[in-house]
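Quick log. Single chain, no ligands specified.
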Amino acid sequence: MATVKLLGGLRRLAPATCDIEADSVADLLRRLPLPPALLFPEGELNRDLEVLVNGRNIAFLDGVQTPLRADDRVTVFMHGARGYPGG
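-> predicted structure:
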């Protein structure tokens, strides 16, 4: 199982840390106890969402298709580079 750590405001919506059995980042995100509309608005990964696998941004790996191993650590957070998410 991959260990998932949620940061920032996402901690108000779900446990800060949990273990999830998943084959890919997309599978893991769908299993998170977060609203699907927050994670995948319009069917694509939310552009304000950052996902790291073992400290590496999935944008530099295989995106949401990045495969996961049992010992992987996944960090998920909303970045604030554009200000308020969606702003």
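The first strand starts at residue 2 and ends at 6.
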